[in-house]
């Protein structure tokens, strides 16, 4: 498909000459002789590059750049002028122009400049597509499920998203709390600012403090230079604190200060730092009970639970299991380059009946394994893990061993020999995997 370039110049001879030169390069050329004509064309067509004269009958071409960018943010603009000035050139670039050149110099410069500007416009389009894809992935509209419980949770999340209110997400492990946090951020006025997530259970108390608040040079051994903390990294945006129930009491007091007056002190510092950040926290614990038993600060609990949302376990939304599993299967089918993968009816029934103690995370892992193990397009229940076959009367232990060996070999091939990744997919410990490899004499 031909790329389009719009020329805006009221001098018809120059406009036509430039159009012929650009057309010979294989581009589709549109012409306008006033700023208004050019903007009208841009309203109807997505044009990656505009070449505009500075002196137009109805517009200053430098100011026109602003109007073009409002209409088409990804469109690049090259300003041409008969009498260039440094002040105009600086203003054009500040307004978002790709370049500003004088007409006497444009013969040698214009074609290479066009290609450079179009390259940047393509990059703009790719970035927009990527941002839209990410926004869609973490939006409320992309959430799968029609059960009453999940719909109620989504309604609450949508209501609180546009505010700066602190949110507490409650639910079992694997219920999608981080996905909800990202959707709330993405539907808020902070969406263009950072979303920073940290799992409080993944750090020792000392390390979590330095990760959250940052530190000054010399604060402790190894602190050779100042470091920003995650709270500062999230400035203007959202900080998601997963498993907040694992945070120790001393650190909870420092977090309370952030919630109350948006200030904090870095490790080893004496100065107070100011921050503008929204907090979304999540836990699988009963924080009220933890507070009653002295394991969680009651004042922090009250600050966090201003607006709480309970996310349902997967076992309470069985009508959503089949569509969620199908979504994951389509994703993994792309990953293993196997289009057309689908579940047979027995698999869907077994997936729907399963207890899913690990919730959506467990379902995702099971579907990934099924996608890896399938040879044909139809996934049958024979490929399901052992826990789905509790009623089966298996007497042929040799056959079971053969199946297990083949299963491990397939997963190892998929993981490209990475035993840590293979053990994760198999749902067994790394030590167990090494023992099975040795037992079955599997060549790795």
Could you outline the blueprint of secondary structure elements for this entry?
Elements: E1 4-8, H1 12-24, E2 28-32, H2 35-44, E3 49-53, H3 61-71, E4 76-81, H4 86-94, E5 99-102, H5 106-137, H6 148-160, E6 167-170, H7 177-186, E7 195-199, H8 205-213, H9 230-233, E8 238-242, H10 249-261, E9 263-264, E10 273-274, E11 278-283, H11 287-292, H12 298-304, E12 307-310, H13 321-335, E13 342-343, H14 345-353, H15 359-373, E14 378-379, H16 397-414, H17 419-426, H18 430-439
Parallel strand pairs: 1-2, 1-3, 3-4, 4-5, 6-11, 6-12, 7-8, 8-11, 13-14
Antiparallel strand pairs: 9-10
Helix pairs in contact: 2-3, 10-12, 13-15, 16-17, 17-18
């Amino acid at each position: 498909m031909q790329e389009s370039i719009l020329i805006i110049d009221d001098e018809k001879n120059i406009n036509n000459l430039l159009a012929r030169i650009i057309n010979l390069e294989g581009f589709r050329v549109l012409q306008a002789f006033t700023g208004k004509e050019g903007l009208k064309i841009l309203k109807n067509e997505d044009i990656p590059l505009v070449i505009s004269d500075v002196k137009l009958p109805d517009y200053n071409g430098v100011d026109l750049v602003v109007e073009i960018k409002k209409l088409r943010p990804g469109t690049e603009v090259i300003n041409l002028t008969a009498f260039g000035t440094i002040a105009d050139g600086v203003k054009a670039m500040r307004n978002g122009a790709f370049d500003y050149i004088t007409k006497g110099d444009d013969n040698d410069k214009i074609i290479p400049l066009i290609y450079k500007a179009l390259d940047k416009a393509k990059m703009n389009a790719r970035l927009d597509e990527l941002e839209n894809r990410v926004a869609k992935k973490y939006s409320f509209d992309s959430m799968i499920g029609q059960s009453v419980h999940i719909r109620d949770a989504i309604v609450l999340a949508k209501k609180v998203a546009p505010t700066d209110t602190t949110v507490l997400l409650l639910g079992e492990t694997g219920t999608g709390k981080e996905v909800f946090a990202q959707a709330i951020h993405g539907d808020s006025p902070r969406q263009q600012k950072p979303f920073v997530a940290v799992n409080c259970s993944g750090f020792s108390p000392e390390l979590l403090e330095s990760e959250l608040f940052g530190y000054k040079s010399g604060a402790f051994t190894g602190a050779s230079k100042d470091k920003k903390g995650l709270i500062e990294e999230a400035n203007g945006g959202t900080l998601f604190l997963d498993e907040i129930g694992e945070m120790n009491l001393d650190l909870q007091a420092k977090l309370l200060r952030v919630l109350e007056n948006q200030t904090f002190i870095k490790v080893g510092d004496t100065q107070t730092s100011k921050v503008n950040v929204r907090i979304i926290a999540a836990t699988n614990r009963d924080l009220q009970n933890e507070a009653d038993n002295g394991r969680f600060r009651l004042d922090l609990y009250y600050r966090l639970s201003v607006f709480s949302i309970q996310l349902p376990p997967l076992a309470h939304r069985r009508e959503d299991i089949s569509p969620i599993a199908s979504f994951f299967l389509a994703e993994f089918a792309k990953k293993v380059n196997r289009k057309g993968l689908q579940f047979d009816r027995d698999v869907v029934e077994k997936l729907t009946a399963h207890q899913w103690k690990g919730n959506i995370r467990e379902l995702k892992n099971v579907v990934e394994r099924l996608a890896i193990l399938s040879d044909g397009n139809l996934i049958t229940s024979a490929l399901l893990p052992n826990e789905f076959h509790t009623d089966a009367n298996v007497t042929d232990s040799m056959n079971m061993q053969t199946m297990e060996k083949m299963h491990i070999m397939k997963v190892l091939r998929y993981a490209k020999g990475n035993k840590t990744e293979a053990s994760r997919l198999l749902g067994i410990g790394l030590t167990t995997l090494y023992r099975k490899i040795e037992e079955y004499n599997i060549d790795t």
